[in-house]
Design brief:
single chain; 326 residues; mainly alpha; 19 helices
């Protein structure tokens, strides 16, 4: 009866599109009627996060002004963090002097305009926001914090703001963080909590696939079937194709993985999706093909990617070894 009393979930399809990587579809289907004020804010957050996922950081920064709600300001801060050196300060003024969040966001913008490191400035301001008792517990703000600190590979700091959960998206982010920490047992524990809440939810199914990939062995096939199920029931996206491809790589099916990844590359909005390129590099190496084209694309578009850094470190080690015997 409680579920019936809650009424229809107007954002169900929009959320699903976002979770499965159908970002343009999420944007295109966002003109929804009869939304409550809270639903409208959530809708706008999902739309702007979709733009961020497509790399349109400047659009998000420009569109979210200082009068926007706290969740939207948090999304703007994520765009500022990810924008890097491409960000350009646009003159603006804060409409309400008492709006602490807006003030800190603008402070971050001005610091960036003075050539302060974008990431450092964004993180500094993010920590100030999280320390504010009035807004620090906002789920979107905590999600942004978890995402930013996961990017920074500061997993303990990420968990500080996400471990309490509060919704399935924060729980799914926790699973990702634990997997990156190689703590599959903690990821499994969090996954079981998600399954108790809603075993069939898209995020629970995705988290199950991630965990199965982390565990390996016979679980790889189970992960593949989850991604296959998504591809049959939903729009086939780069995220789904990469999931299937990674499963194929683990199972030694490199030809199928290559086919899936090339399809994903054709679907990517700018053909520069970092995970697709990275997975193609791995695939080419296993197939005995030169990965130089994909690695060069990855270097140019995503110089901070972990595979680029590892390749550079390997090249430096090789050069030192050659010099030592020359």
């Amino acid at each position: 009866m409680a579920a019936l009393a809650a009424g229809p979930d107007h954002l169900f399809n929009l959320r699903n599109n976002f979770y499965l990587g159908a970002y343009q579809a999420a944007i295109n289907s966002s003109d929804l009627p009869n939304l409550s004020p809270d639903e409208a804010v959530e809708r706008d957050c999902l739309v702007f996060r979709s733009y961020i996922a497509l790399g349109s950081y400047q659009l998000v920064i420009n569109e979210i002004d200082s009068s926007a709600a706290t969740p939207l300001q948090a999304v703007k801060l994520l765009a500022l963090y990810l924008s890097g050196p491409d960000y350009k300060v646009r003159p603006s003024k804060i409409s309400r002097a008492s709006n602490c969040l807006a003030f800190l966001i603008r402070k971050c913008e001005l610091e960036i305009g003075k050539c302060v490191c974008v990431q450092e400035s964004a993180i500094s301001n993010l920590k100030e926001l999280l320390a504010d008792p009035a807004i620090g517990n906002n789920p979107i703000l905590r999600m942004v914090a978890g995402t930013v600190f996961m990017h920074e590979q500061d997993y303990n700091e990420a968990l500080k703001y996400t471990h309490a959960g509060g919704n399935l998206e924060l729980d799914a982010l926790n699973v990702q963080i634990f997997i990156k920490m190689h703590r599959a047992e903690f990821a499994e524990r969090k996954l079981k909590e998600m399954q108790k809440i809603d075993e069939d939810h898209t995020l629970t199914q995705l988290a199950t696939a991630w965990q199965n990939l982390a565990v390996g062995g016979s679980k790889i096939q189970e992960a593949y079937l989850i991604f296959q199920d998504f591809s049959e029931k939903s729009q086939v996206t780069t995220l789904i194709l990469n999931g299937k491809a990674v499963c194929c790589i683990h199972m030694g099916n490199f030809d199928e993985a290559e086919t899936l990844l090339l399809e994903a590359l054709n679907k990517a909005s700018d053909a520069k999706d970092p995970e697709t390129l990275a997975n193609l590099v791995v695939c080419c190496l296993h197939l005995g093909k030169l990965p130089s084209r994909f690695l060069s694309q990855l270097r140019l578009a995503h110089p901070e990617h972990v595979l680029v850094k590892r390749a550079a470190a390997a090249e430096e080690s090789f050069d030192r070894a050659v010099q030592s015997v020359a």
